[in-house]
Write a structure and sequence with these properties.
Length: about 475
């Protein structure tokens, strides 16, 4: 199964071979060499391969080959029932798979539709109702169309779960179960992913029938052509370290991964402030915004694309030179998918990870998963001065002391003269002369007004008044 040196020897339909060659592919990858003959035979498959090794062609080409005998050139929707369903976890991956499938079937009567959320349903509805043999979809939006009776899965012959572990991570298991329950019992089922956890194995036990496990590399391994580097920094130095890596290595097309949407927005804005042509892609952005950012990145008008793991699956950028993990991923498997965006199709790539002390445990988990130690590198992180250079501040404090005295004197001269003091408020109290003469010795009392009756005063207050 591994002695296939070109696509002519698989026995694929000549129209498929011609389409593949027109795309510039002549030598099949290891996963394609193993998967294509088995899928053509109708066997259920669990395919494990590093991301970027051509899994899409590994399942799409033999599926198209099996559907061609039933293809019809009729315009009637009834002659184009859904025969193949390919499920993907993200919009980007679904779009990428569909683009490849449409190129493979360009010279055939087969039709393909893409179905995912975040965009208007009407164009998707029109495509589905016009009849398509292949649907590439995310689970949630497909269920919306099924609920609206826009399509039927009753004639599906083969179903594919692409990046199945990611779909489980994103909570799609209930949706997947609902979709699978609407498929015919007699069908071919394929599961492809770069990693296979114990949860995936449990799903496969219920989803696949006597599957053949295909592995072209050590499970959960990373590509050997991707150089991996680790930079340990303080939390306050992360952004500075990223800027230093971008500038010192003159990287012009870099995918930078973060763990949160708010962190994604903040980092993209900070890079823009530093004069770097950057943009962000995350789950809160509309599909149009995400598509625009991806197209700009692919075309080179955007140098740095900051992304959450929503972009870790499905980004196929030709010769992407580098990936940087600004945040160490929470799940070790996500590290494999992130760095798999570079070094695709045999090209060399660079994967750099910036880690703080609080992320040491996550780094250790990644190294256990990939069964290798990531090389630790050092980088000079420029530390911005706090409030200016100390020497400048010292010169500012001691510079031209005479000028300082002059400034102080100037402030004194500019200050208005105080008003003359009223000595009435500064003299001690002196009783009036008449009161002093009338009062008994040692005590001064106010005199009563003439003609007024004496008032009794409590003894504690000095006795009665006369």
């Amino acid at each position: 199964m591994s002695d296939y040196h070109d696509f002519d020897h698989f026995g694929l339909d000549p129209r498929i071979v011609a389409a593949v060659k027109s795309m510039g592919y002549s030598v099949p990858t290891p996963i394609q060499s193993k998967a294509i003959p088995i899928v053509m035979l109708g066997r259920d498959v669990m395919g494990a391969a590093q991301t970027g090794t051509g899994k899409t062609a590994g399942f799409a080409l033999p599926i198209i080959h099996r559907l061609l005998p039933q293809a019809s050139a009729s315009m009637s929707p009834a002659r184009h029932p859904v025969r193949a369903l390919m499920l993907a976890p993200t919009r980007e991956l679904a779009e990428q798979v569909a683009e490849n499938v449409k190129m493979y079937i360009a010279g055939t009567p087969l039709r393909c539709a893409t179905v995912y959320g975040g965009v208007d349903m009407d164009p998707q509805t029109q495509a589905l109702r016009s009849g398509v043999e292949i649907i590439v979809a995310t689970p949630g939006r497909l269920l919306d169309h099924l609920g609206s009776k826009n399509t039927s899965l009753s004639q599906v012959q083969v179903v594919v779960l692409d990046e199945a572990d990611r779909m489980l991570d994103m909570g799609f298991l209930p949706d997947i179960s609902r979709i699978l329950n609407q498929l015919p019992k007699q069908r071919q089922s394929l599961m492809f992913s770069a990693t296979f956890s114990e949860e995936i194995k449990k799903l496969a036990a219920n989803f696949l029938r006597d599957p053949l496990l295909l592995e072209v590399a050590q499970r959960n391994a990373t590509a050997e052509n991707v150089q991996q580097e680790l930079f340990r920094v303080h939390e306050s130095e992360k952004t500075g370290a990223l800027l230093e890596l971008l500038r010192s290595r003159e990287l012009k097309q870099v995918l930078v991964f973060v763990n949160t949407k708010i962190g994604c927005r903040r980092l993209a804005r900070e890079l823009q402030k530093q004069g770097i042509n950057a943009d962000a892609i995350h789950g809160d952005k509309s599909q149009d915004e995400r598509t625009k950012a991806l197209e700009g990145f692919k075309q080179g008008t955007i140098d740095v694309l900051v992304a959450t793991d929503v972009a870790a699956r499905g980004l196929d950028i030709v010769e992407l030179p580098a990936v940087i993990n600004y945040d160490v991923p929470y799940a070790p498997e996500d590290y494999v998918h992130r760095i798999g965006r570079t070094g695709r199709a045999g090209a060399s790539g660079l994967a750099m990870t910036i880690a703080t002390g609080s992320e040491d445990r996550a780094v250790a988990g990644i190294e256990r998963l990939i069964k290798r130690t990531i090389e630790v590198k050092s980088t000079e992180v420029p530390r911005p001065p706090r409030g200016g250079d100390r020497r400048d501040r010292g010169r500012d404090r001691g510079h031209d002391r005479e000028s300082g005295r002059d400034r102080e004197a100037g402030r004194d001269r500019a200050r208005p003269a105080p008003p003359p003091a009223d000595d009435f408020f500064s003299k001690p109290y002196e009783p009036a002369r008449e009161e002093a003469d009338a009062a008994p010795a040692g005590r001064s009392e106010p005199s009563s007004a003439p003609g007024k009756k004496s008032l009794k005063v409590a003894a504690l207050l000095g006795g009665s008044k006369r």
